[in-house]
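Deliverable D5.2: sample structural annotation.
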Amino acid sequence: MKKLRIIEVKSEIGAGTRGASMGPDAIKIAALDYGSNLFKKVDKVEVPVENQLLFESPGSPYAKRIKGMLSVLEKTANQVRNTLKNNEFPIVLAGDHSTAAGTISGIKMAYPKQKIGVIWIDAHADLHSPWTTPSGNMHGMPLAAALAEDNMTNKMNKVDKDTQDLWNKIKKIGNIAPKFEWSDLVYIALRDVEPEESYLLKKNKVKIFSTNDVKRNGVEKIARDTLAHLNRCHLIYISFDVDSMDSSISKGTGTPVRNGITEKEAGSLLVRLVQNEKVCCFEIAEVNPTMDKENLMAENTFEILQRVANQLTN
């Protein structure tokens, strides 16, 4: 039985659409509507964020608000590290997905000698760097940051010196880069990938389970195969972007994509994965209630969170 701690990171400076910072609160409202006491019985901590920067110029077009992002990532990393050092299991409720670079950094800072596996359940690869990004939005970059990957082979953008320096600091949070290896990354429900990211996925032979794989083989087999692929890792971190679910369900998110998994598949998959003793951290990102009707996305997400929390504390 694990002692949980909820870490709220209500940041959205890495997203292109506004509103993801309200995701954690929308999930809490869903908990109230379900009459759940999850948020009452689990200790919570909130990471200070930099959302005031949304009212200012984004700065570099290829890594928008990167200075504020570095600050949020460092604070997130410290909080995750402290939680793990305190023998608690961090459940991170994030706004946009950029802050996952901080979560991974925090795990590595707590366990610098351990090999970390990453399960990325997401429609998107999030492997852009300032040199390859088409949008400049940093929620497309967290895995590149954690893998210390610039992807200069596919360089499209001319990045200024200040941005380069800040990006290098992000890659080196905790004075360790990279935080994990390409061979220890598994994607599930990945389906919206840019050519620059495809190049990296192919070059590094990254393990990917498509939505069709999930539907064809079932959740149990996907979970088993995922964990088998990561069997050399000491620790496993799971990041769940709600846009991994089909756009018919995941309307309340900034970048919905067709042909995703169902909420039932997502819930069953996550419950099965967190049964593994190596799983040390679970994260939910990109719930955006401003894109939604009747808080449906947050309600679906809360049901999944409740199932995961029950599994972890059994």
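Annotation notes: The first helix runs from residue 23 to 33. The mean pLDDT is 98.
The annotation will be released with the project's public dataset once the embargo ends.
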